[in-house]
Amino acid sequence: MLAINKAVSVTSSAGAASTVIDARGVDVETNVLLIMGGGEFGRPGKGFTVTNTGAPFGSGIAIDSNQIAVRGNQVLSLDGNSGGRRGIDTVDSPGTVLIEGNQIVGWGRGISVRGAGKTVRKNQVALNESGIVAEGTQFEVAGNVATGNFTTGFSIAGSGQVHNNAAYANYTGAIVFPQFTGPVVKNNFLGNQLFFGLFNVSTGLDATNNYWGGSSGPGPDPADDVGGSGTETVTPFASKAWKVKAPIKP
Q1: Closest CA to 234 of 204, 192, 213, 191
Q2: DSSP class of residue 220?
Q3: From residue 156, how far is each of 107, 152, 159 by CA, in Å?
Q4: Residues with Cβ within 8 Å of residue 209, at least 6 apart in sequence
Q5: How would residue 82 be classed by pLDDT, with cut points 50, 70 and 90?
Q6: How many Å apart are CA 233 and CA 5, to the nearest integer?
Q7: What is this structure's pTM?
Q8: Contact 134, 155 (CB under 8 A)
Q9: Which residues contact residue 150 at a Cβ distance below 8 angstroms, ignoring those fewer than 6 apart?
């Protein structure tokens, strides 16, 4: 519905509560397509509300660009059909992208990043099929809150850093796929429905200093546990929850 192809700053003077880009009546693949090669879309307090489109798999924001920041937006799938839709998606490119301070609700994948050098920070992702999916290299997933997602709060593959996030009341807090390289540390895993805070199929995973919902570390309810066929180090573990906040200023 909206394509931006210049390296500009696109912000709303009134913020996301008042500035809505609603594409539900339009049969297109993506609501907002960013092919900017730099610049920003939204800013804390100056973001947009972006809906799904009218197409069966119509997504919210697609980032086909590098050196860009997407911040302060509310990205909402409003018709109850999450399907294969993605709230915020990137292409598999080597350029840097910052996705920060957004609220993402109701998608197949809330936030999906691919390629190298992507940063996903301080977002709220809720009621999606999967909350945040990071597949690539040298990515950072930090300070996000994933709540009530129907499969996983976080799905991780490739190489990067995953730290200071919170996974609450998802089916599984996080799943780490084979050959992931990097730490998964200082996160909160608790109240996830399958009782797995972390389902790991990678080898030699650093999963230290996480909080598992109890002072004695991972284990049976009321704490979350570790599952999967991989190997991981979980000690030392945190005896109390880390302070994880994702303040949204749309």
Answers
A1: 204
A2: S
A3: 18, 10, 8
A4: 185, 186, 236, 237, 238
A5: confident
A6: 45
A7: 0.96
A8: yes
A9: 127, 128, 129, 170, 171
